[in-house]
Inverse folding.
């Protein structure tokens, strides 16, 4: 029995790892390891820097049905109302508009583009966590 690895298997495994890393967002500045650390880092790891960005991200999540909450639409609307984002001029705030596009501005000044996370299991988990944390941030803000 030979100890040599089958060349087609090596190519297939290399392609699998490369495509998984790409799907997980490595091409946009977040490596597979950093996405894993976002998942393991608690809520603070994916907490938005501003409430306007949180509101935009919530709307992004609601439209894509990413969050598991019972009534995220209602929470999003209450948050927008409290922040004054129902006004057409106020809703043009950059942080809010970025959130609508799926750009989560983190407290460490990095931007997590939810659109580039792909549909891998890891990418979906990070998106779900980011949406759940945004929802939680919104609930905390409107109940103060």
């Amino acid at each position: 029995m030979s100890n040599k690895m089958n060349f087609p298997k090596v190519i297939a495994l290399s392609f699998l790892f490369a495509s998984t890393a790409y799907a997980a967002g490595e091409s946009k500045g977040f490596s597979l390891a950093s996405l894993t650390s976002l998942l393991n880092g608690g809520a603070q790891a994916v907490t938005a820097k501003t409430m306007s960005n949180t509101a935009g991200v919530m709307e992004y999540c609601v439209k894509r049905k990413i969050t598991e909450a019972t009534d995220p639409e209602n929470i999003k609307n209450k948050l927008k109302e409290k922040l004054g984002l129902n006004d057409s001029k106020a809703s043009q705030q950059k942080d809010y508009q970025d959130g609508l596009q799926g750009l989560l501005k983190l407290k460490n000044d990095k931007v997590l583009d939810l659109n580039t996370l792909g549909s891998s299991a890891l990418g979906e988990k990070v998106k779900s966590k980011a949406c759940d944390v945004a929802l939680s941030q919104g609930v905390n803000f409107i109940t103060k």
